[in-house]
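Might I ask for a little of your time on a matter of protein folding? The record follows directly beneath this note:
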Amino acid sequence: MIILGIIISYLIGAIPTAYIYGRIYKKIDIREHGSGNVGATNVFRVLGKGPGIAVLIIDILKGVLAVAVVADLLGLTDILSRVVLALCVVSGHNWTVFLNFKGGKGIATSLGVLIGLTIRIASIRPVLLFTVLVWISSFLISGIISISSILAAIALPIIMVLTNQPFVLVCLGVIFCIFVVLRHRPNIKRLLTGQEPRIHLPFHKQK
């Protein structure tokens, strides 16, 4: 059953939500616009708030489905099995077979995984809470989505260790962190040169 779970979770993650939405909503290839990334942030920038929110929610649900629904339906209810499916669904999103293995950056789907895990594993709820707080705090201060995502990813395994999570979950946090940093390499280069897009919130000082 684990093999079936791996295949289903990967294919769920591999559904290129942003690409499909761009084709249906504006008849465009989202990869040819904005940052070129197949993710919710680029949809926000190119297609607007409504489509961006829709893609964000669907990408989050992919992670929830894999670890909380697919796992249960197939009887894969131990932590290790859920972690394996979690890695598969995020890998599917990041490297989708439907777009020549070029996908999104996995932030929304990783969040969905954490939400799905909290549904089944009560001890991980503080991890979700504090990781989201790191993202929100960083975004409110910087207005930069990429740096907020990177900092939250780095904080994830640290928070897992501090809250005494099982070793297999800590490993998941480390792998997710590596995924996020690797997928954000272009953003990191732009951050270092001061060219990364910033959302100016009302309380930010305008330069």
Remarks:
- The two ends are 57 Å apart (CA to CA).
- Residues 127 and 162 are 9 Å apart (CA to CA).
